[in-house]
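Q: Convert this sequence to structure tokens.
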Amino acid sequence: MVFLVIVSSFFFSNFDFSGKVTLSLEKNYVPGERIDGSINLGLKQGELLPASTKLFINNSGEIHEYFLSELVSFDLISGNFYVENINISGSGEGYGLVGEKKIYPFVDFVLEVSGESTGNETAEEG
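A:
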């Protein structure tokens, strides 16, 4: 179910998700036969996908659309949406793994520039 959530967010966002999704088929199949299997979506700690992420499945031209929330039975987590190396923004309820985010301190400083004049500077008078 988590896999379906992640896959749907990648399809909805049109991003490259190579290496994060796997498909396992339970048996051999013949063209036109219904495919049974499972899809696994790998999330790293701290990644969060919106519950409203759409998953599109194209099976021999037959396209099905699902919301991630329809396919996943895990508890919702509130937070800022994040997927590593993907430009996703916003916050709210979604599916993912709790993690830590590094927040770097704000540094306040004053920059003083001094040096010799080259003689090419011009001053405007108002």
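Confidence is low (pLDDT under 50) at residues 14-19.
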